Amino acid sequence: MMKRRPNYLAGFGSLVWLVLIGLPLYVMLAATLQSRPDYSSNGPLSWPKHFTLSNYTQDFSNGFGHYFLNTLLVTLAVVAIVLLLIPPLSYAIVRNQGRTTTGVFRLFLLGLAIPSQAVIVPMFYLITKAGLYDNLIGVILPTAAFSLPVCALVLTGVMREINSELYEAMAMDGATPMRTFFQLVVPLSKGGLSTIVVFSALQAWNGFLFPLVLTQSDSSKVITLGLFNFQTEHGIDVPGLLAAVVLSMLPIFIVYLFARRALVQGLMGVGGK
Fold it and tell me: What is the pLDDT of residue 81?
């Protein structure tokens, strides 16, 4: 039996990847666990000699908790809109192959070619005229709208993998389209549903352009805008800033940790198998 030769190139590539990913995470975590004077004297690569969590507590005392809640509210609202609209839309597109549904699907796909920067001026005009400027609703609506095309594309692809014989079996059992949707399609599309939840949550949580243009007051700020508060006339509070970055990463990391398997299945288009 021939022995497999070790793949040195793959090992070297893995080592490079580990350094590129691990070093910034190490620098970020080490900075958050030491005071600003210690960070300035020890340098960014040094591990803290005296651990402290004051950067995290100070972030919340400086209003970061409010930005966190605003971002969480926007994210939950965007995910709710996506889950309310995309599953029935994708189901209708898959089961009805008429011109109307095909045209609607192509219209959604057209949104993939339109960057948010291209419509920010008319979007600002519409939001202002609707009286939603400097309101979280004015951030939620366009963020959800730009999440819909990708979510429709992903979930439609997943639902098309469901065997047509299962639909026929449900029809022979006397199931209505709504019953078929909830008892057959939704359970077999968990991978795709997890994918669109994670994608839309990422879009909302990391959103920057719409909150920047469509909000103004401190009460409407989200995390991505709140990070600017760490830059003062005396410089940048690097440990405090990186502590805020760590806190902003945790929710999405936790969501991905629990949904990673279903997320991979949805991206591979095998949610119905």
Answer: 98
- Which residues fall within 8 angstroms of residue 265, CB to CB, at 6 or more apart? 190, 191, 194, 271
What are 227-237's pLDDT values in tens digits? 888 877 677 88
Mean pLDDT of 7-36: 85
Q: Which domain, by its residues, includes 30?
A: 8-52
Q: Do both 117 and 223 map to the same domain?
A: yes
Q: Tell me the C-alpha distance between 96 and 233, whole Å.
A: 60
**Tell me, what amino acid is at 40?**
S
Digit-coded pLDDT (tens) for 165-220: 998 898 888 889 899 999 999 999 988 898 899 899 999 999 999 999 999 998 99
H or E element at residue 196: helix 190-205
CA end-to-end distance (rounded Å), the chain:
37
Q: What's the whole-number average pLDDT of the chain?
A: 87
Identify whether residues 46 and 70 lie together within a single domain. Answer: no
CA distance 85 to 151: 10
How many other CB atoms are there within 10 angstroms of residue 156's CB atom?
A: 20
Which residues, 6+ apart, have CB-to-CB distance to 58 below 8 Å? 240
Q: Is 251 exposed, middle or buried (0-12, 13-18, 19+ CB in 10 A)?
A: middle
* Residue 254 confidence (pLDDT): 85
- Look at residue 1 and tell me if it is in a domain: no
